[in-house]
Design brief:
The complex is a heterodimer of chains A (about 650) and B (about 350). Chain A is an alpha+beta fold. Chain A contains 20 helices and eleven strands. Classes of the chains: A alpha+beta (about 650), B mainly alpha (about 350).
Chain lengths: ~650, ~350
Amino acid sequence: MFKTVRLTRVTIQCPEDRIAPVMTVLGELRLLHLIRIEETHLGRMGFVAGVDRELLGRYQDLLARIARLLDGLQPAVPMPQITRIPRPDREHFRISEQLDRLEKTILPVLEELEQGRQRLAEEREVLERLRLLEPADLDFDRLATLGYVTWTAGLLPQENLERLEESLSDVYHVLVVVRKKDDRYVLVAMALDDDREVLARALKSSFLEPLDLPSGLQGPISTAIGRLAGVLRDLEARLALLDRQRKAQGEQYGASLLEAREKAILCSQLLRAQEKFGAIDHNFIITGWIPVDLFATLEEKIDKATAGRALVDQVDPEHIREVRSGTLKIPILFNNPLLVRPFEKFTTLYGTPMYDEVEPTMFLALSFLVLFGMMFGDVGQGAVLFAAGYLVFRRLFSFMDYGIILMECGVSSMIFGFLYGSVFGFEDLIPPLWMRPMQHIDTFMRISILLGITIISLGFACNVVNLLRRKKYGDLLSASGLAGALFYWLLAGLGMRYMLSGAIGRGEVLFAQVATGLLFAVMLFQKPVRSLLLQLRRKNRARQLPKALGLSLFESLIEVGDEILRFMANTVSFVRVAAFGLTHAALFMAVFSLADMVRSAHGRGFSYWLIVAAGNLVIILLEGMVVSIQTLRLEYYEFFSRFFRGGGRPFRPILTGSDEE
Amino acid sequence: MLLSAARYSFANAKVRALRSGRLSGEDFYFLLQAQDLEGLLAYLATTSYQPINPELPLRTMQRTLFVPLFTQYHKIVASLSHAPGRRVILALFGRFEAENLKMLLRAMATGLDHGAIAPLLYPLGALSTLDWNRLHDCTTPGELIQALDGTLFARPLAHAMAQHEAGGALPPLEAALDLAVFRHLASAVDALAGRGDRRAARRVLGGYVDILNCLWVIRLRLHFGLSPEEIVNYSLPGGRELSLRDLHMLAKADTVARFIARLPASLAARLGSLQEWSEFRPALQSLLLRLLRRTLASFPFHVGVEAAYLLEKEMEIRAVVTIMEAKMQHLPPEATAQRLPAPLLEETAHV
């Protein structure tokens, strides 16, 4: 839990003709983080396998065909689970055959639907234009018989009408303003057919936007409109029928199309993974990280899939030269329980832990919930947060993790709500199981500091474990190591003793003076002494040694002083937990003061409850956000900064599914 | 009158101060006589104009000449406490925004990038409220219209889009920009509260539009071969003496004599001696310049003074630009002088 999953490096050698079943096995196991072959000796020597571009291209074509069908059908069916990982060299035949069949059934409907929609849009536009001209009461039959007159209808900017009149003053013409539309006139312009060119030039230069009407319109305009409306109704009915067919097809074929897409994506990913493989003659070499527990299964499955023609080898990380030299990083595979897993997002937001570091997500999750609950303790508001989290969890799949965090914060808030005896700010509904923060401000602050000391101590402990794991024993004597931790615990213990009993014995003070003095000396001199020893070991007895020693001592003094100041500042920083807890209670007081003013004027009516509800909503949104930020700030600055080094590499399984496609 | 004096006294004083830096007839004499472009720039640097680097491309030099004009627009707008008067000056300034927008449209049509057209744009400075960065990023006229949403240019451009899309040519869009800006100018003049103010502004700006319309009719007829009905529709609104009917008649005139005969009597009398179409530009510009100078010498408390000064300054800069181009083409000073408005050269010389 406090350590990531133990990984081992596997190397698989298999003949070219067996690569497909091997990839299928790797896909099924999923938990393989491939190492790019270029990062190894073999890769650097140029033994790199290429991607089968032709096969990959086939899958891209298939995916495009599937996307076309899915875009058209828009099926509302759940995403199917792929239980069997397909073989990339074979699966495309199956998918292609399936698509040929489905396209014969689906595409005619989709194409007719598409054409119908396009036609519908065009006919609607024509109808719109005809309606603009309706007040002119045009008769298309009569207009068609005009042999000596030409006419045009269009939209003319109002301010251009006078100019248009003038520009046509030399020719016989009629301009009929039919109506106004926005800032333009709907205009019908007529002139003699001999003056067709003049009319066209004048209309064009006056910025008339022609209302194009289809040829073949007959009878009075009202009849044409009625006829077109009828056509539109028929078209809409036909489209509705086609749409029903589309939906039915979506239900019928949606699942199989989604499954085909998922398989095509998996095959593409497997094929793309080949660029990380090595190749010597007709053999592929695959290398990557896998959980130690899975190695036996992997070996067995590959043996079975290749009829014993593949070699599977395992090397522990500590035996790999690139790992020891730091050129190859072991990826991090988190190993947290379901309820803690969402908090991994917060950890990785700060940085990805190194393989040999303490994985702090569990500590982070617990302390986050405790701090949040302390600052936001209320049964009612906690329930609202829980409900909001549940809603996110159920409805917004991609934000599921945040939904879980919100639910957990809600539970923590409810627990502290019971401890404080607060339900939506009402403090007379349930008795406090512990205390009311506003009535015990001193105690609340002391507990906050105690919590801070615990979290900072935890940070020290994590750092000590990290130093031991990295075998940096000398750093244990530093201010951020064990010596610093002891120094801090001694002072913290003394402080706690004073806070609890109000007095410290002379013997205790003497012990503290001696012990802190010794620890201070250790922290101060450890660095200069270590550098001196290092120089002696290198047989570098230069004459300027005293000067370098003095400088090192001065640096050490600054570092220790800085670190001790940070202890104090970090501890005091936790007073904010009490401060925000009290702010939460104070905001309730403000809301209820307002509500009471309304009650004294109008009684406990709708206005009173409206203010209480609105106040609670504001507190949930505003205070909830502030508390979350403050909690995260405490975690990052006061806890993580003590031990977290980061710079690790996240584990990327060979198959990621459609999410990353 | 007291109210007008209170409104315009500060702006008027500002104009008088700025006008002291104009080029005299003597300055133009030396500019015309300069051996080459370098000599011209050397002399220009001794006047109120800032020194210009002769290494710059000609177009950049020409645009740099306009920098003081836009600074002066800014100063005059800031000195006008009268909001409708300020609106008139800003509307006048809008012509340069329209010119820059035309340049952006041409860049879109020809596929030129920002770097290529930057030297061709007027350096408008802080007075322009258009979001030029966004406008530079536009790649189609449609995007440009969207980016201009809420400005006086958006609606006329949108109305011209149908013609642009039908023919794929820019002139409808360019004409729409010109019509928009001059319509805005006319409405700003109409919105002036005082009758005297309005009359003076109409005299100056209406006269300016009349001269422009005459020049446009000639240009559209001779250079672009447009028909009279098109010319009428592309003529600018807000003229004083020339009605739409007059412009239509002018557009139909096929000889210089007929053109002059169809002008209103006041203009015809002063242009009666012209024989060639090419003589119209300097002659009309001279008429305009005289009108502006008369305005500047008369009753001072109206927005016409500020407008007249800015137009006078603009004409001065354009005259310098003409001389620069003539120097590049090695034209003799006499030939160049014929292209300039005569009043510019008539100012007292002190040689």
